Amino acid sequence: MLSAAELDRTDPLAGFRSAFALPGNRIYLDGNSLGPCCLPAERALLRRLDQWKADAVEAWREWIDLAEQLAARVANLIGAVPQSVAIASSTTTNLHQLLTTLYHPTPARHRIVIDGSAFPSDAYAVQSQLRLHGKNLEESLVVVAPEADELLDVEKLIGAIDERVAIVVLPAVVFTTGQLLPIRRLADAAHARGALIGIDCAHSIGAVPHTLDADDVDFAFWCSYKYLNGGPGAVGGLYLNRRHFGASPGLAGWFGNRRETMFAMAHQFDPAAGAAGLQIGTPHIFSLAPLEGALELFEQAGMQRLRSKSLAMTDRLIALADERLARFGVRVITPRDPDRRGGHVTLSHPRGRELSIALRARAVVPDFRPPDRVRLAPAPLYNRFVEVDAAISAIEQIFQEGGPPDATNEVVT
């Protein structure tokens, strides 16, 4: 294994680190929760603030197309035509919009399949939609539980899709474990059984290259504040496959209206073509602006180079954890196969919460997810290989010194 210093010296992405305002002298490995502020994002936000100060309402002449401009840029990250992408609302709002638009249950086909590791908000939205349609959750909600190793069995996911299933909603990357699911295979299986499939890309966009058009998924949705570094409150995004263009938006709002007739102020909704018709309210310009700037870094770096470095860093995390932490009862949950792994590594230990707090006391910022998981997300734009080594060393030292101390009641993010 090459030394971390050697890997950092030859890293073609090393220069991007200077574009980020990283928190103090801490090792920041929590970009899968909130990406740090990057300088292009700051500049873009300040530019939009200056426009507000200088032009007030006249600034809308430029702002009116900002969401569509960003949709075209994000489309390049996810392998989609721009018309299939809308940058709007939040992750959960977009899921509600997509389900309200595409979920049309019949007595024979009314079930929705999710996984037992689904992000809670996804589960809430699905349950809410079923209730709105008068469905009994016990009859219409199918939850595929993870296996004993905490990973999802793809064969069981496929096996849960039968002639009663209308829609399947699954993550690209499982947030608890870092498992990357085979999207095209799942899409083919759903379509073969007459079901639609939607993908939650919140923990994958910006970390894993996507090919949503080629994978033939029906819809997808995501946030922009994790790997994309769009900042707290950044707008979400959605993808709608071209086969569904023309579907009547389930939640109509004025910004989903065709631009040509939007300002006629008629009460007859005239939806825009493609994903743009699923927009609801006026775009939040100061939530769009940081994403506008942050995308510059992804366009310069390229998703393939980012993915290559991400896999190298998570490979190293896993190898070092196996070598130096297993004797303390620390277990790697994340798949070792790179084709089954997203951008973060999940470690499991009975005192995971205490370990997360102890790491932060040593200037290493992970995150914790119940019941016992510590997630480490080395982001290729700003993390270095020496930080991967230092994080593992910090965990090793904590256990060598007797283990993490008892936790306080503080909230662990």
Structure characteristics:
single chain, globular, 7-stranded mixed sheet
Assembly level: single chain
Beta fraction of the residues? 5-15%
The amount of helix comes to: 25-40%
Which stretches of 5+ consecutive residues score pLDDT under 50?
none
Structural write-up:
The protein is built from 15 helices and 13 strands. It has 413 residues and is of the alpha/beta class. A 7-stranded mixed beta sheet has the order 2-8-7-6-5-3-4, sandwiched between helices. A 4-stranded antiparallel beta sheet has the order 9-10-13-12. Strands 1-11 form a two-stranded parallel ribbon. Strand 6 (196-200), helix 10 and strand 7 form a beta-alpha-beta unit. Helix 5 (91-102) packs parallel to helix 6 (120-132). The longest helix has 22 residues, at 303-324. It is globular and about 70 Å long. The two termini are 33 Å apart. The model has no long low-confidence stretch (mean pLDDT 97).
Concise summary:
The chain is an alpha/beta fold and 413 residues long. The chain is 38% helix and 12% strand. It contains 15 helices and 13 strands.
Secondary structure elements and their pairing?
Layout: H1 4-9, E1 27-28, H2 39-55, H3 60-63, H4 66-78, E2 85-87, H5 91-102, E3 111-115, H6 120-132, H7 137-140, E4 141-144, H8 154-159, E5 165-171, H9 183-192, E6 196-200, H10 212-215, E7 219-222, E8 237-240, H11 259-262, H12 285-301, H13 303-324, E9 331-332, E10 345-348, H14 352-361, E11 364-365, E12 367-369, E13 373-376, H15 385-400
Parallel strand pairs: 1-11, 3-4, 3-5, 5-6, 6-7
Antiparallel strand pairs: 2-8, 7-8, 9-10, 10-13, 12-13
Helix pairs in contact: 2-12, 4-12, 5-6, 13-15
